[in-house]
Structure formats: structure tokens, C-alpha cells
């Protein structure tokens, strides 16, 4: 496999998968086999459950699925903003995928993949 060859040649410590969710299982499995840390951007529950099962058997590497927009980037932005204040009572961050005025059956804004 080309990815295994690349890992042996370049010796990375981690894999960050930005692939579609249905490809993350095989990438996470490879990370587990090669002792690499693993991150992905997915929000797919089935893929995440599978990745958690791999993580349970890993000893020297860690797995962090669902590092996408929310949770993920939104948490980084929140943390950075909180550092600007002396004290904080509450932080509420939202991702703009849920519209005020629903226009479809799924009740989501059609933005990213449409």
C-alpha cells in the first residue's frame, strides 16, 4: 500500500484524515497498525464508534475523531476568545447550519455539499 510506504519513508507521528467519512475506518485502522496518532474531521457516528474500538486497543498512540468544524474548530475559536477576558460566565458558540426559517424536510441550511 502506498500510504504504508510513505509512512516508512517519512516517519510521521500522526495522520490527519480529511477524507470523506466512509474512508476514515481504513485510515484509522492503518494508524492503529502503524502506531500513529489519528485525527479526523468526520461527524459520522458509525465511523467514530469503529475508531473508538481501535483506540481501546492502542497503547502508545491516541485517536481523536470528530475534530471537524463543530466540535473542533469552533472549540479552538472559543478557547482563543476566552483568553481575552479576565473572567467568563458562559460561552455559547453556534455553527450556522440551522436556519431560523426552515425551508426543507431536514431542517438544515443547504450550504456545504449541495
Fold and architecture overview:
This protein has 114 residues and is mainly alpha-helical. The chain has a domain at 2-64. 40% of the residues lie in helices and 9% in strands. The protein has helices at 2-10, 24-34, 45-56, 69-82; strands at 14-17, 37-40, 63-64. A 3-stranded parallel sheet has the order 1-2-3, covered by helices on one side. Helix 2 (24-34) runs parallel beside helix 3. The longest helix has 14 residues, at 69-82.
Question: What is the element layout, followed by pairings?
Answer:
Layout: H1 2-10, E1 14-17, H2 24-34, E2 37-40, H3 45-56, E3 63-64, H4 69-82
Parallel strand pairs: 1-2, 2-3
Helices, by number, come to 4
Strand content: 5-15%
| Global Rg | 18 Å
> What does the oligomeric state look like here?
single chain
Structural class by sheet pairing and helices? mainly alpha
H/E element order: HEHEHEH
Q: Which regions contain 5 or more consecutive residues with pLDDT less than 50? A: none
**Percent helix among the residues?**
40-55%
Strand order of the largest sheet: 1-2-3
Q: Give the total of beta strands.
A: 3
The rounded distance between the terminal residues' Cα atoms is 33 Å
Characterize the main sheet.
3 strands, parallel
Mean pLDDT: 86
Tell me, briefly, the overall form: globular
Protein name: Saccharopine dehydrogenase family protein
Amino acid at each position: 500500500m502506498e500510504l504504508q510506504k510513505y509512512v516508512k519513508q517519512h516517519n510521521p507521528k500522526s495522520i490527519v484524515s480529511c477524507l470523506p467519512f466512509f474512508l476514515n475506518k481504513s485510515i484509522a485502522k492503518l494508524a492503529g497498525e502503524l502506531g500513529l496518532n489519528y485525527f479526523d474531521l468526520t461527524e459520522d457516528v458509525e465511523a467514530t464508534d469503529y475508531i473508538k474500538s481501535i483506540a481501546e486497543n492502542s497503547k502508545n498512540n491516541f485517536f481523536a475523531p470528530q475534530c471537524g468544524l463543530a466540535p473542533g474548530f469552533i472549540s479552538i475559536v472559543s478557547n482563543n476568545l476566552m483568553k481575552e477576558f479576565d473572567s467568563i460566565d458562559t460561552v455559547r458558540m453556534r455553527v450556522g447550519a440551522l436556519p431560523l426559517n426552515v425551508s426543507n424536510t431536514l431542517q438544515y441550511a443547504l450550504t456545504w455539499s449541495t
